């Protein structure tokens, strides 16, 4: 009997999911006050939005649509870059929905900082970009969740710390905070830890390559062999306050 495929928390660029995967979508446009389900989703994120202006800007300036899906397969949320739409699974507790929302809002920010992969990249370079974007979004969401925990709002942190495919990253972040009490160092440790689980890398590599090939066929593109920009990682890795943190792929 085959082992069940792990359920990932979120996906960049809709690698694992699309609107077709959802049986039903309940959507809203700004200011996200109707329908009630979307208003509740935004209201429960209010503490994070109030503490981090970058999240507020991403949601209320850059997001064009926010949706709840009654059924998603493989992931709990995803971001569609072309339409700036975020889709979140409805069948989650509020704390986990908050964690996914923060993660996907970070992907939205990544689009506007120029980090999204471009069609000229090779398939391998595209996968490298997806890896880094996921590692950065996880790191960003952990930084926000840690701040909320320090403000006696631990639910989002606890949700991330107990999610099987992110628990090791949360542990690395927490261990470094305990050692150095330095957010940038903890972020660097979390980013590095993202690459440490082979199963996580394999899942994202397969999804990134499938998405890349499907897009190439759909758009009738010729094979491309471009590389990531030399400053890709420097532009990508930012904390919620905009400060840079050290990030790099592991050697090999």
Automatic annotation (TrEMBL):
Species in which this protein is naturally found: Thioclava pacifica DSM 10166
Top-level lineage group: Bacteria
Domain DUF6782, first and last residues per copy: 23-247
The name this protein goes by in its record: DUF6782 domain-containing protein
Swiss-Prot/TrEMBL keywords: Signal
Signal peptide limits: 1-22
